[in-house]
Design brief:
two-stranded antiparallel sheet, 44% helix, 2 domains, Dna Topoisomerase Vi A Subunit, Chain: A, domain 2, 7 strands
Length: 209
């Protein structure tokens, strides 16, 4: 792709660094910015700059937050006895989009993957253990992607918490094995949460597959 302007070329190069954005799509975005009023572009770029500079992570669940505690954890209308354990922030957004879950979350920051060098110390498993022990959590819903790594993480956490009085469930297999949670449609995801299984049943079903 040949550009007559180095400024345009540099802008296209930066946009194309975003996931799923090719050079042609990046060029359309840049040309659209050129059509906008300067004030509109300044608002757009200012919002991005403020987001990157000021965004924080919740001290309780590790979700993105504007302050020390995210809006979900601070909401007294949520069920604080129920915690949904997810891999990343995108999964929180996916589940919230279903409008079928009213509890809290815990973002692990990934899943166990020895081949990638990701062990328990790289995830927020210890803080999950502390939440269950100290905050009276009655149920953990393991909403991890149904992959080998996801299942391994579920089993590991279940073993770590086996001596604590907490019910551990996992989302039903409405999501195809090997799929990722964030790409499941809202109805399938909502049904998987609603029909969640006790961890013991899940292990039995999984071993029969």
């Amino acid at each position: 792709m040949i550009f007559s302007s180095k400024l345009i070329e540099d802008a296209v190069q930066e946009f194309s660094k975003l996931p799923g954005i090719g050079k042609k799509t990046a060029l359309r975005m840049v040309l659209q910015l050129l059509k906008m009023q300067r004030e509109e572009v300044e608002i757009f770029t200012g919002a991005l700059a403020r987001m990157r500079q000021e965004i924080r992570f919740c001290n309780t669940c590790h979700n993105v937050s504007d302050g020390e505690t995210c809006a979900i954890c601070a909401n007294p209308g949520r069920d604080h006895s129920q915690v949904c354990v997810v891999e990343n922030i995108r999964d929180v957004i996916a589940i919230e989009s279903t409008r079928q879950y009213s509890g809290l979350y815990h973002v692990l920051g990934g899943i166990l993957s020895p081949i990638d060098g990701i062990g328990p110390d790289q995830l927020y498993i210890e803080t999950l253990h502390n939440r269950v022990k100290e905050n009276g959590v009655e149920e953990l819903i393991m909403a991890l992607s149904p992959t080998i790594e996801g299942d391994t993480t579920v089993y590991y956490i279940a073993r770590q918490l086996k001596d604590l009085p907490v019910r551990i469930t996992t989302i039903a297999r409405g999501i195809a094995f090997g799929g990722e949670l964030e790409y499941a449609d809202e109805m399938t995801l909502a049904r998987s949460i609603a029909k969640r299984l006790p961890i013991e049943n899940y292990v039995t079903v999984h071993n029969k597959v």
